[in-house]
Amino acid sequence: MAFEVQPWSSTTHATHNMEQISGPPARTGTCYQTPRSHPWRPTMGYEAVQVTPLHEQPITNALVASSYSPSAMCSDPVTFPNLVTGFERNPQHAARAALYTRYTPNEWTTSNVTTYAEADKNRNYAEKVRSEAVRLMRETDEKTSQGQRDAARRLGERITDITFWRNELTTELEKLIAESAQLTDTKRNVQKALQDLEPPLHIAQECLYHREGRKSIELVHDHVEKSLLVEVDNLRSCQEKLSQLLARITKQLADCRAAQHSLEDDISHKESALGIDSLCHQLNNYSRGINYYGGIEKYDPTVSTPGTWSGSSSTRINNSHSERSKSCQLRSDAESLINAVATSVWDCWSNTNNAFNNRSSEMLEAKSKMQLHLHKTQQEIFDVEKHIELLRKAVNDKSNPMKVAQTRLEARAHRPGIEMCRDNAHLRLVEEVCTIQDSVSTLHRKLQEAEAQHQQLLKTKSQLENNLKLKVDALFIDREKCMGLRRSFPVNNTIKY
């Protein structure tokens, strides 16, 4: 008869302590053995008795010839006296001995009564034994049935408990998987936010680099540069915060995955135990595959009690709930941090753009004023040049009057004798020459002053032109290069504004 392998036989660890019995059991279940080849025939008392035959020995008496006695006898042959020929007596003695060997009628009657009483007693005892056996069989059958029903009820309760905890674990596992999926989405959002901080940082650094191309007086540590430095520091600080948050999310995802593995492992064990207990609950006396397993009741493979068993599942559920709470809090922190980073980055971006606009307005105004001053300076240079020409012409115009006056004086110096009079004409001519000389000297000084001022105006014009060029370059850097990079915000998905 081939015995079916039970579904738990491949997972049990009691192979060395249990003995599977095939056929009649060798060491257990001896009460069910029968010497008959047919197991359905009952075992009777007389069937268990084995009669051992004795050695055959000849029974002889003293009248038997010694030659007929067996030579291998170790004792004297048994002698049975014969009532007729066994005694060497006369017939009287033999008759007398025969009378003495008979039982009396009373003894015969008493013997019969005793035999009847013994038979009644044995029959009564046998009937009692039979009734007790029937009662014992009924009691054992009832006890066995009751034990089997109680074991089935306990298995049913156990199946209910396992099903309850399996459902609880399954529900918690579904919640944990959903929370892990949400946390994974949050991790992607944080990574996206961290990546989205690179373009603003690169733009801010590019703006600082371009502004280093300003020259001379335009290298001003103005509000724009301060705003750019603040923006760079803010972006780097936000990157650091997001990196730390990303590390926390990664660690929390690992913890959630560990809790998920613990729940899945517990659910798998409970599914296996539920299958085994369900199969055990369905077994009955007529099920296939039932068999003897010697010594299985002495082997204790259990590693937990009902309290520790339910406590283990409860601990795993509580651990999963704790991880879900941490994950939910971390998602809330991540969302708050992303919004705060978005607001901070946008504020710094807007402040820097406003600073660029204000600085561009100031530079445009300064450029306009510079152009106005340059125009005025150029006009003044033109006027000074005209004035210089007029002064030179005025100096040249004093040449002929000087010649006339000096010619008059030289001609009058040739008057003869007493005619060399210091008259009013002579005094007036001398005064006229002195006056013309003073006027020429004054005109020369004014001409020198005008020429010096002309040179100063030319220098001022050069400075104005140089400053105008510097301002145009700085304005081009701020308005075209920098603001050209900052006209549109480089982040549109994560950073909401």
Model description:
- This protein has helices spanning 91-100, 105-196, 198-211, 223-282, 306-397, 399-412, 424-485; strands spanning 19-21, 292-294.
- With 497 residues, the protein is mostly helical.
- Mean pLDDT is 79; it is low at 1-5, 9-38, 45-49 and 57-64.
- Residues 1-38, 305-324 are annotated as: Disordered.
- Residues 7-20 have a biased composition (Polar residues).
List the helices and strands and how they pair.
Layout (H helix, E strand, L loop, with lengths): L18 E3 L69 H10 L4 H92 L1 H14 L11 H60 L9 E3 L11 H92 L1 H14 L11 H62 L12
Antiparallel strand pairs: 1-2
Mean pLDDT: 79
User: Which class do the helix and strand fractions yield?
Assistant: mainly alpha
Query: If helices are DSSP runs of H or I spanning 4 or more residues, what is the number of helices?
Result: 7
Give the topology string: H per helix, E per strand: EHHHHEHHH
Strand fraction band? under 5%
User: Numbering strands along the chain, what is their spatial order in the largest sheet?
Assistant: 1-2
Taking all Cα atoms into account, the compactness measure Rg is 69 Å
Give the tally of β-strands.
Answer: 2
* Terminal Cα span: 82 Å
Low-confidence stretches: 1-5, 9-38, 45-49, 57-64
- Biggest beta sheet summary: 2 strands, antiparallel
The proportion of residues forming helix, as a percent range, comes to 55-70%
| Principal-axes shape call | rod-shaped
